[in-house]
Amino acid sequence: MARVALIFGGRSVEHKVSVTSARTVAAGLEAAGHEVVPFGIALDGCWLEPVLAAKALSGEVDVLGAVGEPIAPTLATFATAGVEVAFPIVHGTWGEDGTLQGLFEILALPYVGAGVTASAVAMDKILCKRVLESAGVPVVESIAVRRQELEAHAAETLERIGEVVPPVFVKPSVGGSSVGIRRVAASDQLEDAVRFALRFDDAVLVEREIDGRELECSVLGYPALEASAVGEIVPGADFYDYADKYLDDNAGLLIPAELDAETEARIRKISVEAFAALGGFGMARVDFLLETGGALYVNEINTLPGFTSISMYPKLWEASGVSLAELVDRLVTAAVVRQEDRKRLDDGIKAWVADLEGR
Questions:
Q1: Domains of the chain with bracketed CATH
Q2: How many CB atoms lie within 10 A of CB 152?
Q3: Are 249 and 240 in contact (CB under 8 A)?
Q4: Residues with Cβ within 8 Å of residue 349, at least 6 apart in sequence
Q5: Cβ-count burial of 16 within 10 angstroms (0-12 exposed, 13-18 middle, 19+ buried)?
Q6: Are 281 and 288 in contact (CB under 8 A)?
Q7: Has residue 245 got a pLDDT over 90?
Q8: Facing residues of 283 across strands?
Q9: Residue positions annotated with a catalytic role
């Protein structure tokens, strides 16, 4: 069993969701026999010592308030904690976008989840679409708009996006939990929705609305990937937005989704292919849109999915016969194996260079 650093909180707007997810993960790790060492990241990015972070896991607090100190010195406690594996559950920016993963790589610390590249690509909706398209994975047609473009050529840019026939969804390119997303039903609402989304990121995606169903599939493993059962989201609002996910609790979750065997198999196959196209490993939740008529599209890939009581990722694995304790244990094991492989490759490169220099 391992001494696992459970890292949660963070600077993004998904801070509270991360705290809730961490409680679920902590219970699973403990049930699997691992030692949990909690590290909370405050709202201002400062790292909190385990005794303080534990208050959030116990439910004593739901938010890790700003510390008001420089971030860098607070990392010392984590860097010298003597943990064997990191289990990050920091949703959103500065957590699942490759930045936190880069820190673990520098520390040569095994960590749960996707690596730097897959994490960064999946977090950027525009970039992710391009990578998936190049791999032959079906994605919804969209138009990208960047802040500089709108500011420099407003009339031309608005004319270009005006060619998209509503209804459409306007989304910040980088972000999670549907933050900043608006559904636009009429052309005269497009500019306002784009400018609203630009409050959250410097690039925006204008995407055709799909009349159909929202389906999700969980992916797990290293080096081989496997897919779970398929679930369905039944939004309680116009679409599955932040409020519907975390505040109103009106959305319905159908596990497993009512699908014919061929469609389910296709979703599970594409889930693995899509995550693999990003160079992914560890875990991911792949979100699909199934259009009326049968067309299937990958909507997003979430490399650090939620672990709350209503989160699809663990619930889909539970429906597939994998308990929470087994799930987190497999993730920890995969992290250790991957780190061993990384070290083997690095040692091989250094040995090759040494051989060249010794000729």
A1: 3-112 (3.40.50.20), 122-137+211-303 (3.30.470.20), 142-208 (3.30.1490.20)
A2: 10
A3: no
A4: none
A5: middle
A6: no
A7: no
A8: 220
A9: 14, 177, 246, 285, 287, 300, 302, 306
- pTM flag (> 0.85): yes
Flag whether pLDDT at 248 surpasses 60: no
* Window from 27-36, 98-107, 350-359 with minimum mean pLDDT: 350-359
Confidence grade of residue 16 (pLDDT, cut at 50, 70, 90): very high
Q: Exposed, middle or buried by CB within 10 Å (0-12, 13-18, 19+), for 136?
A: exposed
270 in Cβ contact with 137 (< 8 Å): yes
More confident residue, 13 or 127: 127
Question: Which residue matches tokens 């509503």?
Answer: 166
Reported residue count of the chain is 359
Rg (CA), the chain: 21
Residue 240 has pLDDT above 60, yes or no: no
Q: How far apart (Å, rounded) are the C-alpha atoms in residues 204 and 232?
A: 26
User: Which has the closest alpha carbon to 79: 5, 12, 1?
Assistant: 5
Instruction: For residue 258, count other CB atoms closer than 10 A to its CB.
Output: 9
- DSSP reduced 3-state for 229: strand
Mean pLDDT along residues 343-350? 94
pLDDT interval class at 241 (50, 70, 90): low
DSSP 150-203: HHHSHHHHHHHHTTSPSSEEEEESB-STTTT-EEE-SGGGHHHHHHHHTTT-SE
pLDDT (tens digit per residue) in 63-72? 999 999 999 9
In terms of Cα–Cα distance, which of 300, 263, 262, 268 is closest to 139?
300
